[in-house]
Hints:
Elements: H1 8-30, E1 38-41, H2 47-56, E2 61-65, H3 68-77, E3 82-85, E4 98-104, H4 113-122, E5 124-135, H5 142-154, H6 161-164, H7 170-180, E6 183-196, H8 199-203, H9 211-219, H10 222-235, E7 243-255
Parallel strand pairs: 1-2, 1-4, 2-3, 4-5
Antiparallel strand pairs: 5-7, 6-7
Helix pairs in contact: 1-2, 4-7, 5-10
Amino acid sequence: MSTFNAPPDAYERYMGLWSRPLAREFVDAVGIAPGQRVLDVGCGTGALTTELARKVGAANVAAVDPSEPFATACSATVPGADVRVGGAETLPFADGSFDAALSQLVVNFMTDAHAGVAEMSRVVRQGGTVAACTWDLRDGMTMLRVFWDAAVAIDPSAPHEGRTMPFCSREELDLLWREVGLADVETGELVVKRSYASFDDFWEPFTFGVGPGGAYCVSLDPAACEALREECFRQLGSPAGPLDLTARAWLVRGTA
């Protein structure tokens, strides 16, 4: 996940303001309840960790992320949580340590998604919950779809996430969970909204180089970057003031 080796505040501007409302919807949909011990896999700066702590208390929450700066930021955001540096494929926890393991916006960035989900299952007790959500990059995540549709409009070879990213449909997530051996697999959708103060508020985070979109943006020469900016502006309807966007994520859950 090298495209996320960025300062935590840059990530917050790029995706954090989306992931925080998504985390609230995700935790409620999974049914996390007080008294449970839970794990956040790929915690980033702590959006999901924060919501889990609100439900069960920070002392009952563990989190892991391969980025040391992100793990440090998460630990500062959720004092009392057990936050560690590590990857999903080799979780630093004993078998059956948790009642539930959740992963938000991470499965499609795992080096080996099957191994990562299998590890999530391993550290959950028998009968516990393993759940994840990923953006619907092919249609429902407006911010990223607009960016990549604009990129392809001016450069047909642009690596459109909706065409190249795995595990961003409910069918792919359902199959992944079943292939790992989880039972009672269910899928659903989560929809969140975000307001931008202006088009510049929408555009600027892409210039920070965070995520695949940001990495592509900063790889362009100034003229191509300006052309991409103008095409994004056009595809959003040339907004003169604030704009509201929606985003859909696919949810999957199963029983260990």
